[in-house]
């Protein structure tokens, strides 16, 4: 039963990462700049940020089957249409629809694991997510070189169609208690405030230099969102329950910072590979293979570390290794040998594998049982907020007049990543002291 959900779950990280090696081809094909092509990333993440909690709440109330099946149907349609988009605006719209569809997977999987009482499968979830996210550029690079950028969309169709069929046959329908109590989809204002606040935050970080009015407006709208959610009977996000869960909000904040640091490198380095290093998309994708391999191995090893280590300590270890990787990134130069660049990529894969596993376990342990889907959705939203902020940071670090060789300043990239890793460690370390936990269950 969970096999279909796992297949669907890999689509979000796969589509988050595979597009990294296709951005340059899209930019050249449509004759646009980095700011325009970056909407393929930020539009996907912004849509997923809003859709994940909604899908999770619907799965909590109505069961995972219908929510997951609808998501796979939307993702299939978007993937089939995207390669034929005649303009960048329509291509971005297809990416947003794709994000809407794949957003159903992870929350539905969390609900299913809670109902089956099988938290031991969390390591499999982390392994699938890590592997899919890491191998995306490795698979996408050669595919883009041979078939062009449409290949990053074609790859979805076999997975979405198969997951849809299997889910309709095997997943349970609506639980007996579904539909009772207040309707959870009634907080339209909360959803609009949430989406509006994120959109304003996105605008603030994508404008160079930082758009202060948009940033202040985002702060105001998100503050109003929290105030409204604390008052409404059936909130879009149950802030009261999440605030009452020990350390849950701090885990989400730490995960935002972790992904901000990681995705700054994940999206920035392929652009640098294809700019100052002069590599093609296939070479750039293959150069990230060490990152893919080390992240998968780190996830497998991290599952064993969850016995003697708490999830907090595993997360802190990941942030410490991200700091080391950040220093290595800052030391790269256009004349650096390929073996050194590949070594740095491998070093960055280790914290991704460990951090994804440790913080996912923290989320599961801290979340209220009746909000498993919502908590899972917010966890993924935290991932995407970090990625959105990473894209904005890359825009700031990329020279405006670099033309076809546009790429972020790699020294500034490494320094920014280091600062973010330190901040993330402070947040996670603080919540560990306030809400200590015992050793993690071996996964």
Describe the structure concisely for a colleague.
The protein folds into two domains: 2-171 and 236-434, MFS general substrate transporter like domains (Growth Hormone, Chain: A); 186-235. It is built from 21 helices and no strands. It has helices at 2-9, 11-18, 23-30, 34-37, 39-62, 64-81, 88-102, 105-116, 122-147, 151-154, 156-170, 188-206, 212-229, 239-244, 248-274, 281-287, 289-305, 311-330, 338-366, 372-397, 410-434.
Task: Give an overview in words.
Helix content is 76%, strand content 0%. It is mostly helical and 443 residues long. The protein folds into two domains: 2-171 and 236-434, MFS general substrate transporter like domains (Growth Hormone, Chain: A, Up-down Bundle), CATH 1.20.1250.20; 186-235. Helix 15 packs across helix 16 and helix 18 (311-330) packs antiparallel against helix 21 (410-434). The longest helix is centred in the C-terminal third of the chain and has 29 residues, at 338-366.
* Count of individual domains: 2
Q: What is the CA-based Rg, rounded?
A: 20 Å
Number of strands: 0
Order of helices and strands: HHHHHHHHHHHHHHHHHHHHH
Q: What fold name goes in the CATH topology slot of the largest domain?
A: Growth Hormone, Chain: A
What name goes with the CATH superfamily of the largest domain?
A: MFS general substrate transporter like domains
- Determine the fraction of residues in helical runs and give it as a percent range: over 70%
Q: How many helical stretches?
A: 21
Strand content: under 5%
**The CATH architecture of the largest domain:** Up-down Bundle
- Measured between the Cα atoms of the first and last residue, the distance is 19 Å
Q: How is the main sheet built?
A: none
Question: Globular, elongated, flat, extended or rod-shaped: what is the shape?
Answer: globular
Low-confidence stretches: 178-185, 438-443
- From the helix content, strand content and strand pairing, which structural class follows? mainly alpha
Mean pLDDT: 81
CATH C-level of the largest domain:
Mainly Alpha
Keywords: Membrane, Transmembrane, Transmembrane helix, Transport
Protein name: MFS transporter
Transmembrane segments: 30-55, 90-113, 125-147, 153-173, 185-206, 212-230, 242-264, 284-307, 314-332, 338-359, 371-398, 410-429
Subcellular location: Cell membrane
